[in-house]
Amino acid sequence: KEITMKKKLARIRRSKSTRARIEHSMLPRLMVHRTNLHIYASVISPDKSKILVSVSTLESHMRDQLTGKPGRGGNTKAASLVGEMVGKKAQEKGIKKVAFDRSGFMFHGRVKALADAARQTGLEF
Prior knowledge:
By secondary structure, the protein is an alpha+beta fold. The protein has helices at residues 2-25, 60-66, 76-92, 110-120, and strands at 29-34, 39-44, 51-56, 99-101.
């Protein structure tokens, strides 16, 4: 239990420096959070007052696309679907450029798949 707590604190520590840099850019931030079973992505306004766009593997339309597949929300295919959806929704709201906030998670696997899918829809970061 102590090891996992240290791991979580290290991730939170890493995320603080990233968020401090993002705050100066005055861009909306694409925040990613992942758990073992699900992945979440939100575009948050620069002043941190509003969530402009939000997508996760918990939503019913996403669950419908992932049913019957092993891993459901905890794999790279689900992450790329979330990235694609968040990119499309952001484009609809007129958001073209964002700052990518990976919340201290390493940029590989599901986080990278989400970022690549969001870039393919036209989001710049």
